[in-house]
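ligand=flavin-adenine dinucleotide
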Amino acid sequence: MAIRTPQEYIESLKDNRVVYCLGERVKDVTQHPILKICINWMAMDFVLQQDPRYQALVTEKDEEGELVSFVFQPQRNVEDLLRLREIVKLWARVCYGKPSGAKFVGKDGLNAVTVVAQRVDKQFDTNYSERVEEYRKYLQKTDATIALGMTDVKGDRSLRPSQQQPHQDYYVRIVDELSDGIVVRGAKAHISEAPLSNEIIVLPCRAMREDDKDYAVCFAVPANAEGLTLISAEPEIREPNNFFDYPLSASIYLNDAMVIFDDVFIPKERVFLKGEWSFAGQIAYMFGNFHRLSAETYKAAELELVVGAAALMAEYNNVARAPHIRDMLTWLVQYAEATEVMGRAACEYCVSEADSNLVYPNPMYANITKLFFADNWHQATKYLQDIAGGIVATAPSGKDYFNPETHDMIEKYLGGKAGVPTEHRLRLIKLIRDLTSSYEDVLTLHAEGSLAAQRLSIYALADFERYKAAAKRAARIKDEVEHPLYSQLPDFPPRSLA
Ligand SMILES: Cc1cc2nc3c(=O)[nH]c(=O)nc-3n(C[C@H](O)[C@H](O)[C@H](O)COP(=O)(O)OP(=O)(O)OC[C@H]3O[C@@H](n4cnc5c(N)ncnc54)[C@H](O)[C@@H]3O)c2cc1C
C-alpha cells in the first residue's frame, strides 16, 4: 500500500477497537465529535505526505521503489537526524505548535528498539533485530499510525514492579508463555493518540532487576487486539468546531489514554524483548534520547507561537516600549532560540552505535535541552499571561461577541490600541488562554519524562573527572590523578617568563 491518504487512515480505524470516551463505549471512533479532533490532527501526517511541496522531505523510496514514510527509516547519520527534526518542525508549524500525533511518539520507540535489539542479540544470540526489521517493513507497507506505550501506571512509586501490592499488574508483564508467543497483562497511562492509532509499541519504563524479569518486555500490538481496552483522556474541550474560543484545543486533542492489557496474546514475531531484564533500562533510556529530541524540536516551533503571541499582545495593548515588557519579550526570545539551538546540537553531536550503522541523539544534549525548556515553561507562560492581562481569564465567549444584542458593547469596550480590530485582540486573548492552559503546563513538565528523569541522566552522563581536573589545575593541586586533556596542557603563566 505504502503512503496512505487521510481517508484511508480514517477508514482503517473502523476495526472494532474497544475505546471509551466520556463514559461511553464508542462503537465507531470516526463518528465521535471529540475523537474526530484527534483523528483530523493525526490525518495531517497523511495530508503532508500527499502534498508535492513536502513529499520529498517526509517520504523516501523503499527498496522496491515504493514511497514510504521517512520517519520509519533507521537513523544512520547526522543528516538523517536533522531531517527528522525538520519533519517534526514542519508537523508542529502546520498544527499550531503540536506535531501531528500519527507517528510522532511511535517513531522514537521504533528507533529505540532498533538500536537496543542489536545489543540484546549480541549478548543473548536472540533474533530481535530481524523481528524489528520485519515489523518496520510492515509499518512502511501499511503506513500505520503508531502510539508508544512506555509509562506504566506504577502504583506505589517507591516499590519495584514485582514488589507491588495488592496486585502485581501495575507494570505490564508477561503472564504466560506459549510456543507461538506471550500473554501480557497490566496497564499503561497517558498514551498519546493510542485510541486513534493503528499500532502501539510497548516498552518498559524503567530499569529492572532479575526479580522483575517478567516486566522486561517489549512488543508491538494492533490497537484492536483482543483483550485491549483504551480509555480516552478527558478532553479539555466539549465544544468541537468552536475555533474562536478554543483556537488550539478545538484543533488539537492528544487523547493521552489509558491502555489496559487484559491477557493480550502477542505473537512471537512482534516481541522485541522477553525477560532480558538487564536491557529494560537501556530501551527506556534510548527511547528518552530520541523522544527528548522530538520534544525539544516541536517545542522550539511552539515557542515561536508563544513569543509571537506575547509580542502581538504587547503591540495590540500598546505597551511594547515599556522597559519591563521589553525585558520579558527579550527573555522569551532567548528561551525560544536557546531551545532551538540546543536541540539542534543533540543531532549535530549524535552518537554512533558501536559495531553498527546506527546513530542516536546525543544523550547529554537531548536531556539538557528537555530539562531547559520544561523547567522554564512556567516562567514563559507567566510572562505571556503577565503581558496579556487579566482578560485572558475573564473574556466573554464568542457567543456573546457574535450575539447582535451584545456585540457592539464588546466591540467598543474590549478594544486596544486604535486601529487594532477588537476581534483580533479577542482572538489573540483566546489563543493565549489555550497556550497557557494547565494541560499545557502539565504536558510540558511531564511528557517525555519528568524533570527528575532528565536530571538523573545528566548526572549519570556528566564528565566530572574533566571538570575536577580543570579545577585542580587552576588551584595548583598536584596529585596522582592524570587527566588526558588537562594534564597535557602547557604551564600557565609560562615558566620561561617567570
Ligand atoms: C500530556 C502527556 C502525554 C504523554 N504521552 C505519553 C506517551 O505517549 N507515552 C508514554 O509512554 N508516556 C506518556 N506520557 C507520560 C510521561 O512520560 C509521564 O507523565 C512522566 O514520565 C511522569 O510519570 P508519571 O506521570 O507517572 O508521574 P510520577 O512518576 O508519579 O511522577 C510524579 C513525581 O514523583 C517523582 N517520582 C516518581 N517515582 C519516583 C521514585 N521512585 N522516587 C522518587 N521520586 C519519584 C517524579 O520525579 C515526579 O516528581 C505523557 C504524559 C503527559 C502529561
